[in-house]
Amino acid sequence: MTADGKTGITQRLFMSLFGLIFMAAGGFFAYMILTDVWANYQTRSWTKTPCVIMESQVDVVRDGYRFRVGYQYDFNGREWASYKLNLKDDNVFSKVGEADAKARKYAPGGETWCYVNPKMPGQSILEFSSLAMGFAVLLPMIFVLIGGGVFIAAWTSSSKPERQVRSKADGGSSWKGRLGGAAFFSVFFLAGSLIGYFFFLSPWINSLTSGDWKRTECTILSSRVQTHDGDDGDTYSVDILYSYEANGRGYRSSQYSFMTGSSSGYSGKKEIVRRYPAGSQAVCYVNPDDPSEAVLSKSLGGMAWFAILPLIFMIVGGVGILYSLFGAKDKRPSYTRSRKRSQAAGFSESFKGENAGVSGGGMTILKPKYSPWFKVFGSLFAAVFWNGIVGVAVFQCVKGWMSGNGSIGFTIFISIFVLIGIAIIFGFFHAVLAAFNPKLTITLFSDFICIGDEVSFSWEFKGSASRISRFTLTLTGTEAASYRRG
User: Where are the domains of the chain?
Assistant: First the structure.
């Protein structure tokens, strides 16, 4: 705030830039998601056409198992050929069982239906892609809403402290502020929920319900540490291909355990692969309800402990949402105000209710709910916690650029969290400076107050009060009653 009480233009410009970055980043990812969903939706209107499968096989590739298919069809009196299963270009599966299932479904010589683009007959697919990923647009839209809220608040916020004080006295935190806080913490909750479910909760459920999976002899066909090209550098996973028989039929699987996905750290995965050399015999566990699903180990391993990270995000987000919507409610009674000013370094002021007449005695010194140093250490913890997590992603991002695999999209995405981390660091330094500000002491000349009482108080500063350029004091009284029974 400037000396005259108006929001400085520098502060408005900074808030506007911050909001626009949030909106641009969220809008970019929302556009990419919606573009992909729209393209998949348009395939629903393509012409359903009979076709014949000419070739079908599964190839082992660097990132997993690619299903290759080729088919022919007649359209508008002309013969066409296509090699696309769906709109995806690679058709790479992380599990060989999924690729083998496609190979069995689309066996060479079989007849099926394909969907042909009437505007481009050479473009066709065998399957529609799911539209469920459209719900993922909710996450970047939260960034758009937060950015838009910050931008609007920068230019429409109250410019005079008196107006802000009057607004608070009339009803406490506004619903806009509560919704903004809830939207901010919902980012944490959604991110933690999605990561926690797909990478940790689902494997935990599978592990707990696999007690009746049948112990089966299997043959190791190949074993390797699989390398995945990531936007922020390579990641690795255990890839052991093995064959087994169930219900008189042969199957293949490449799933080592219920934990899926990939991560950094090559040596630990290499040690697992070493225990399963190609050509050796091993024991796997087969799902009796779906024999194509099997694992070599039902143990979740050390990766299960990483479930704590998304759980922390879920807890922080959930508590923040509840507190923003239902916490810190400020219901204040109305008072008529009469002032008695003096020319001394401090002043006394009286708040008189309609039913004045009962007065209390004694003296009460008001103390802050949280000490300045509590805020310092609290903001320090927040800065270390947030930037510690974000720092890991930044390291991977820089590593990706140094290796020539940098991603502009991921860099923009992680930059949002970096900006938040910088803001938290500034908040820490602000708390440190505030801790050395002059200390305010407020004394109430009463230790027992009833509704309608007249209450007098005085205030004074300890420290260099000359550092203060503008000072606004608001005293609020609330009533609370506790009952032991009834």
Answer: 47-116, 214-297
* CB-CB contact of 252 with 243 (8 Å): yes
Phi, psi at residue 378, to the nearest 5°? -65, -45
What's the rounded Cα separation, in Å, for the pair 445 and 352?
14
**CB proximity list for 172: less than 8 A, separation 6 or greater:** 328, 329, 330, 331, 332
Would you say 301 and 257 are in contact if contact means Cβ atoms under 8 Å apart? yes
* Segment holding 326, helix H or strand E: helix 308-326
Confidence of residue 115 (pLDDT cuts 50, 70, 90): very high
Q: Which helix (H) or strand (E) segment is 351 a member of?
A: strand 348-352
Nearest residue to 67 via CA among 83, 78, 54: 83
C-alpha to C-alpha distance for 204 and 300, rounded to whole angstroms: 8
Sorting pLDDT into bands at 50, 70 and 90, what band is 282? very high
* Token reading at 427: 């908040």
Q: Which of 1, 109, 113 is nearest to 50 (CA)?
A: 113
Minimal CA–CA distance to 257: which of 303, 296, 209, 206?
296
Count of positions (residues) in the chain: 486
Cβ-contact 110, 102 below 8 angstroms: no
Strands (E), 390-465: 439-444, 454-462
Write out pLDDT tens, residues 454-463.
Answer: 888 888 888 7
Q: Is the pTM for the entire model greater than 0.70?
A: no
How far apart, in whole angstroms, are the C-alpha atoms of residue 199 and residue 398? 25
Angle, CA 227 vertex, CA 128 and CA 267 arms, to 5°:
145
- Please give the biggest Cα pair distance in the chain: 101
Q: Tell me the pLDDT band of 2, cut-offs 50, 70 and 90.
A: very low
**Pairing of β 364-366 and β 348-352:** unpaired
| pLDDT at 294 > cutoff 80 | yes
